[in-house]
Amino acid sequence: MPELPEVETIARDVDAELRGATVREARVRRPDVLREVTAAALRRRIAGARILRGWRRAKFIIVDLSTDDRLVVQPRFTGAILIDDGRLSDAERQYSTLALQLDDGRTVHYRDVRRLGTVALMRPDRFAQYIGRLGPEPLEASFTPAALAGRLAGSRQSVKKVLMDQTRLAGVGNIYANEALWRAGIDPSASARRIDPLRIAALHRAIVDVLTESIAVRGTSARDYRDAFGERGDFASRLDVYGRAGRPCRRCGARLVGTHAIDGRSTVLCAHCQR
Prior knowledge:
Elements: H1 4-18, E1 23-28, E2 34-35, H2 39-46, E3 51-57, E4 60-65, E5 70-74, E6 79-84, H3 90-93, E7 96-102, E8 107-112, E9 118-122, H4 124-130, H5 145-152, H6 159-164, H7 174-184, H8 197-216, E10 257-259, E11 267-269
Parallel strand pairs: 2-9
Antiparallel strand pairs: 1-7, 3-4, 4-5, 5-9, 6-8, 7-8, 10-11
Helix pairs in contact: 1-8, 5-8, 7-8
């Protein structure tokens, strides 16, 4: 599932490549991915709209339009925004659920093999309501160790589950929760409220560092993720624990343990290093 670095990469690509372009028409092949709008209404409202900006909030890609609408894409497991200048493969086009034809001849596809992601069109007031429950962004200056401590305080849940709770912290999912906790030397099953201030500071640093490093190499293509040009991210080769169960810990050499017991998701940890 695309997390903050992957969604940030796509949003930056959209902004750099599509800002200023005009949508000539929209073609909806699979209306079941739509939210907040019907296929007919989307076609009517988006035709002639100019793309003002592409940006990210949590795991959403947001495209601001000159019509005051916002196109809000949540890729989830297999979704991707692909910019097609005529060279996109037929295999990629096969799973296009929504296509925006631009005035410069390019096409923007929302491709989703399993159609678990969503595309919404909404006004700013509805958008504000829609994302109002999301937690803070971990790469903003306001996200400090004290802010993280406030997010963890009072929760009896595992620290890993709290990190992945989008109402407490936006954008962090399973991959980067695993990685940050390993870097900070914290047991993913530890109660969030029992993490002491020194370890909270280490966890804060680990979260910021791992997200920043992944963005720099365009994210993790563990499975389906592709950037807006259909290319894979390069961070998978740099993962320390995710996907490495049974292999040696890069810090101490002990065998990494894989489990689904903590939150029902794949958790990989070093029982020797993470206490």
